[in-house]
Specification:
The structure is a single chain. Helix content is about 40%, strand content about 20%. It is an alpha/beta fold. The protein folds into two domains: about 190 residues, Rossmann fold (3-Layer(aba) Sandwich); about 90 residues, UDP-galactose 4-epimerase, domain 1 (Alpha-Beta Complex).
């Protein structure tokens, strides 16, 4: 049985990944904080081996890796781009946390690390390639870029078998109620109009099941250590268009109030991926188009509305 250690297991993507790992017969270890919210994993918690450990605690991470001896590590623990947190928190969690994982894995050269990077490291751009120079427009993006550089350094110097999946904008079941797509769905169900900025921001939305497919493939195929792969749909959609599509699919129960919110000073206005490398190296392309993904997401949030409204 494959031992898989997941950091950030109780988060949106982590919860979807953990369910897939359990379904596929993995022995799952979830590295969590004492304060972690288990809402997303409540129904499968008894199937998971829980390890309370902060990724920022160097000694605790080393001890956890030494004891568990995982075959796979999925490093998803991260801060969020929005709502904003203190710059020092981005650095502690995203940089020091990743460093601790990398340091600890030196003792397990056969363990494969799948690290989830972020498009925020690139800055703004359309159909961005993996070899673009980093030009982050936020401390969050800078911290994810720094973590990526650390990963590349440890691959070169220490021979770690680590790869980076650079995620664009995942969405789907278990996403935070504060994020755009869940917020739109839940507001429509409550009969509340949707306040937006200009809505011109472009994002590359990718359904979470497709993200998990990419992670599972990256964990098993023959792939060169240090490889970086964009995971997105390959095209951008504006915030106002995705919001309009959601409301149309729900029968247009409320209105969109464009311009009612200010645009953040660090807003990334254009963001989409070139996914040729994912297709070439992983044999992966998204199976779920945006409309189908939104239909599935609307159905899930409608069915699970009460618990979904409290998702952090």
């Amino acid at each position: 049985m494959t031992k898989s250690l997941v950091t950030g297991a109780t988060g949106f993507i982590g919860a979807n990944l953990v369910r897939r790992l359990l379904r596929d017969g993995h022995e799952v270890y979830a590295l969590t904080r004492e304060s972690s919210d288990w809402t997303r994993l409540k129904t499968v918690r008894d199937q998971i081996r829980t390890v309370q450990c902060l990724v920022t605690d160097t000694n605790a991470v080393a001890e956890t890796i030494r004891k568990v001896k995982p075959d796979l590590v999925f490093h998803l623990a991260s801060t969020r781009f929005n709502p904003p947190v203190k710059s020092t928190v981005h650095l502690d969690v995203n940089v020091l946390g990743t460093l601790n994982i990398l340091e600890s894995l030196q003792a397990l050269p056969n363990t494969r690390l799948i690290f989830t990077g972020s498009t925020a490291a690139y800055g703004s751009g359309s159909h961005m390639n993996e070899d673009l120079p980093f030009l982050p427009g936020s401390v969050f993006g800078a911290s994810k870029a720094s973590a990526s550089i650390l990963l590349q350094t440890y691959v070169r110097l220490c021979g770690l078998h680590a790869v980076e999946l650079r995620l664009f904008t995942p969405y789907g079941p278990w996403e935070s109620a504060k994020r755009l797509i869940p917020h739109t769905i839940l507001s429509a169900l409550a009969g509340n109009d949707i306040a937006l900025t200009s809505g011109e921001q472009e994002r590359d939305f990718i359904f979470v099941d497709d993200v998990v497919d990419a992670m599972m493939t990256a964990a098993t195929v023959d792939i060169a250590p240090g490889t970086v792969i964009n995971i997105g749909s390959g095209s951008g959609t504006s915030v106002k268009n995705v919001t309009s599509t959601i409301l149309e699919l729900m029968g247009n129960p409320v209105e969109i109030l464009l311009g009612n919110l200010p645009t953040r000073s660090d807003e990334i206005m254009t963001m989409s991926a070139n996914i040729n490398q994912a297709c070439k190296i992983l044999g992966w392309t998204p199976r779920t188009d945006l409309t189908d993904g939104l239909v599935k997401t609307i159905a899930w949030f409608t069915e699970n509305r009460e618990s979904a409204e409290t998702l952090p």
